[in-house]
Write a structure and sequence with these properties.
The chain is of the alpha+beta class. Helix content is 54%, strand content 16%. The chain has eleven helices and nine strands. Strands 1, 2, 3, 4, 5, 6 and 7 form a seven-stranded mixed sheet that branches. A two-stranded antiparallel sheet has the order 8-9. The two termini are 25 Å apart. The model has no long low-confidence stretch (mean pLDDT 93).
Length: 375
């Protein structure tokens, strides 16, 4: 498999990096944190409305660009690199794929054009495991001719920023997918979290009005595919964060002098940075390979295993890169004035989404054992 970027992809990646460097700089991220805001409205409006990033992977018939998972992953890598304070991952990386793969034609025609046009921020009240088979915490029932939903989901990405929340819920012995909009029965509360760069909150629905949007024939398979998209896009974001940690560290150690020499000249420091560079590139290659496989129509099960491997590698290297950034910054590494702690907190928080790495590794290992037994 050849993983080189096309000229168009190179241009898109470079332009995304340039825009985010200008508009989602460290000072911009810190302004959002200091203000206690749930998002940076200026950068969100620019990305979603002016630049159309939310529509990159949405089909053209719904107003998007009709590109693939690979292209969207390139953007997520850059947003992760800049700790973007906006609901881009929740909207383009979670909600849009779930609508595109599991919703009815009518629901897709209603919501995907709005997301592509930047008129609607969205999120998904995923169960903690990221699976629609287990752990569904919401229940739906009929009230007159309408649906209402009740239950609590404690951890929902960008819950305060979303115009609609896609909510898997149990209904009449099966699982359905519903949309929740702000209403009298819907209570949303932001958490005070370790990672102040991303809004996470609690959804409490008390007979909140809802609309059913799934196509029952698509839901099980479509939700699994959508969850794999979300996991891979999170992995792309993590690779971007890891790269930012290495870049920050390289800039710092090139200037910091000890014993009359820049500490970047010490062999032990060089080795630690080289190890990070190699592992970041490995994780990036796994993300790109998995995304390319999905775009080229790889078998769902094989693609799912590739996604699992990429997510584990990205999670582990992000944690390591953030830890090393703090260590190699020395005494200032953990201070508020320097950025490594912001990435460390994002890395820790991101690692908790879609299940622990051990869960994904067990799936891969089980597949390998099964293959060996049947060989």
């Amino acid at each position: 498999m050849r993983l080189a970027l096309s000229p168009d992809q190179e241009m898109m990646r470079e332009e995304a990096a340039r825009i985010l460097a200008e508009r989602s700089s460290s000072s911009a991220v810190r302004r959002v944190i200091d203000a206690g805001a749930s998002r940076d409205d200026a950068i969100w409006n620019a990305l979603s409305r002016e630049l159309g990033w939310c529509g990159v992977a949405i089909p053209e018939r719904h107003g998007g660009l009709g590109l693939g998972l690979f292209d969207l992953a390139l953007l997520l890598e850059e947003t992760g690199r800049r700790l973007l304070c906006a609901p881009f991952f929740a909207t383009a990386g979670c909600a849009a794929p779930l609508l595109a793969h599991a919703a009815s034609d009518e629901a897709q025609a209603r919501w995907l054009p709005r997301i592509a046009a930047g008129e609607c921020a969205a999120t998904v009240a995923w169960p903690a495991s990221g699976s629609l088979v287990n752990d569904i915490l919401l229940t739906a029932e009929r009230a007159g001719g309408e649906y209402v939903i009740s239950g609590v989901v404690d951890q929902v990405l960008d819950v305060r920023n979303a115009d609609i929340i896609l909510a898997p819920a149990r209904f009449d012995g099966e699982i359905g997918l519903f949309t929740l909009e702000r209403s009298a029965g819907l209570h949303l509360q932001s958490h005070r979290t370790l990672d102040a760069t991303r809004n996470i909150g609690r959804l409490h629905a008390d007979r909140a009005p809802a609309s059913r949007v799934d196509d029952p024939a698509r839901l099980a398979h479509g939700a699994t595919r959508a969850a794999d998209w979300s996991k891979l896009l999170l992995a792309a974001e993590q690779v971007g964060g890891a790269q930012a940690c290495l870049d920050l560290t390289l800039a710092y150690i090139a200037e910091r002098v000890q014993f009359g020499r820049a500490i970047a000249s010490f062999q032990a420091v060089k080795h630690r940075c080289a190890k990070l560079a190699i592992e970041i590139e490995t994780a990036r290659s796994l993300v790109w390979g998995a995304a390319s496989g999905v775009d080229q129509g790889a078998d769902d099960w094989e693609a799912s295993l590739d996604v699992a491997g990429a997510l584990v590698a990205a999670t582990e290297i992000y944690n390591l890169a953030a830890e090393e950034a703090i260590q190699l910054h020395g005494g200032v590494g953990f201070t508020w004035e320097y950025d490594p702690h912001l990435y460390f907190k994002r890395a820790q928080a991101s690692a908790a989404w879609f299940g622990a790495p051990e869960t994904h590794l067990e799936r891969v290992a089980q597949h390998l054992f099964d293959e060996h037994e049947h060989a």
